[in-house]
């Protein structure tokens, strides 16, 4: 995976709560990136196959058959681009398949801007330039993930125990969770689960779930007029009071002020 070069945006579409893909299999003339904000889907790109959700970037090379199927209602960014590199006339091979990003806070910020920018006009050159910048930031995060793993003496392949744990947390993040039950289910102690998950993804399982829940809370605050209590229940928390305290501590701003700022 080469970090040198620049992704020149061809198109960007944000799909909100898509229940299924129009075609189970397709191919594209550009590099095509699927970046899920919510929900999960299965995919197969040549020998690369698996499941993906929030925190995963799935990349398909030009002219390659891409099988995909929604496993849960899916909200995702669909980005197509040319890869430009002066060193090899644009032919630098990128990765194919899934790569997971541990910096979910930065990822969520990029997604939020990608959602909001089209409202200012798709034909606006400044908007297009910003979308292209965000696409390249996603790419740089993927490059940094691999650099960190290599420098730490880690292989890019994550142990299947922790892949299973992550998939389970993605599927059940907004319902009642027991880390002890999850550890038992995959044959580890809670300490082994926590340490191994943190080594693989740069955060504990609890931090991972908290990130998913707060990202959903942000989207619901931006896109709906639901009460804080209702949003709390939809994010896996018992009441709005607890969500408000957690949100304020993690985001540095209360949910009500966050909502107000996003609607100015």
From TrEMBL:
<dbReference type="InterPro" id="IPR009057">
    <property type="entry name" value="Homeodomain-like_sf"/>
</dbReference>
<feature type="domain" description="HTH araC/xylS-type">
    <location>
        <begin position="163"/>
        <end position="261"/>
    </location>
</feature>
<keyword id="KW-0238">DNA-binding</keyword>
<dbReference type="InterPro" id="IPR018060">
    <property type="entry name" value="HTH_AraC"/>
</dbReference>
<protein>
    <submittedName>
        <fullName>AraC family transcriptional regulator</fullName>
    </submittedName>
</protein>
<keyword id="KW-0010">Activator</keyword>
<dbReference type="InterPro" id="IPR018062">
    <property type="entry name" value="HTH_AraC-typ_CS"/>
</dbReference>
<dbReference type="Pfam" id="PF12833">
    <property type="entry name" value="HTH_18"/>
</dbReference>
<keyword id="KW-0804">Transcription</keyword>
<dbReference type="InterPro" id="IPR037923">
    <property type="entry name" value="HTH-like"/>
</dbReference>
<keyword id="KW-0805">Transcription regulation</keyword>
<dbReference type="InterPro" id="IPR050204">
    <property type="entry name" value="AraC_XylS_family_regulators"/>
</dbReference>
């Amino acid at each position: 995976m080469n970090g040198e070069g620049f992704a020149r945006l061809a198109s960007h579409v944000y799909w909100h709560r898509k229940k299924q893909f129009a075609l189970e299999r397709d191919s594209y003339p550009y590099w095509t990136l699927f970046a899920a904000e919510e929900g999960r889907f299965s995919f197969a790109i040549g020998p690369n196959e698996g499941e993906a959700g929030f925190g995963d970037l799935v990349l398909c090379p030009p002219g390659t058959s891409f099988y995909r199927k929604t496993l849960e209602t899916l909200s995702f960014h669909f980005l197509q681009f040319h890869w430009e590199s002066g060193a090899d006339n644009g032919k630098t091979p990128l990765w194919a398949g899934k790569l997971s990003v541990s910096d979910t806070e930065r990822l969520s910020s990029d997604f939020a801007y990608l959602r909001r920018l089209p409202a200012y006009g798709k034909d606006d050159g400044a908007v297009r330039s910003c979308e292209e910048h965000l696409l390249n930031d996603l790419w740089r995060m993927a490059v940094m993930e691999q650099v960190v793993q290599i420098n730490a003496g880690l292989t890019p392949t994550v142990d299947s125990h922790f892949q299973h744990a992550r998939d389970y947390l993605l599927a059940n993040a907004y319902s009642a969770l027991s880390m002890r039950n999850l550890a038992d289910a995959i044959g580890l102690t809670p300490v082994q689960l926590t340490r191994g998950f943190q080594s693989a993804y740069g955060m504990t399982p609890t931090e991972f779930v908290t990130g998913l829940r707060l990202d959903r809370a942000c989207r619901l605050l931006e896109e709906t007029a639901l009460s804080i209590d209702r949003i709390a229940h939809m994010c896996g928390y018992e009441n709005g009071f607890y969500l408000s305290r957690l949100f304020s501590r993690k985001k540095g701003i209360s949910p009500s002020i966050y909502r107000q700022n996003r609607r100015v």
